[in-house]
Amino acid sequence: MSEAPEFTRSTAVVATSEGPEYHVDIRAARHALAADEPESEGGADTGPTPVGLLLSAVGSCTAITLRMYAGRKDWPLAGVRVRLGYEKGSDGSARITRRIDLLGEGLADEQRARLMEIADRTPVTRAVTGGIPVVPAGAGIPPQRRETAS
């Protein structure tokens, strides 16, 4: 029988929604964000939707990871543009589409191919495709404690 793994928290986020509207105030470390639904869905459109935030997380993690990797290899990557979409199927399924443009001259075909491989292994992409579990608060965050994300 194997031992239970130890977990180390690297990010904490606090999301608060009060009142009749869907607006949510989000604290991630020292950064304030917001989420909402569009007016067509009963929200006030004061921020991106939760799906928009998810796509932003996938896109930003992809861009950052590819820039870091290319930088460590001293490859001539001038920038990364990631375009994402969320599509719902008629059968209730869903998928995220992602287009990655590697910007700059001088990248060899092998380097481009390697960066596209790395894109599928970014931390947020793995979280989304691997199905990281969401566990109850008893697993580490006391329910009565209001914490600022760190």
TrEMBL record:
What keywords sit in the KW lines? Oxidoreductase, Peroxidase
What InterPro entries does the record point to? KH_dom-like_a/b, OsmC/Ohr_fam, OsmC/Ohrsf
Transmembrane region positions? none
Database matches in Pfam families: OsmC
List the molecular function annotations (GO) for this entry: peroxidase activity
Give the enzyme's EC designation.
Answer: 1.11.1.-
Origin organism is: Streptomyces boetiae
Instruction: Look up keyword Flavoprotein and say if it applies.
Output: no
Q: Does the keyword Oxidoreductase apply?
A: yes
Q: What is this protein called?
A: OsmC family protein
Highest taxon listed in the record's lineage = Bacteria
User: What PANTHER family does the record point to?
Assistant: OSMC-LIKE PROTEIN, PROTEIN INVOLVED IN RIMO-MEDIATED BETA-METHYLTHIOLATION OF RIBOSOMAL PROTEIN S12 YCAO
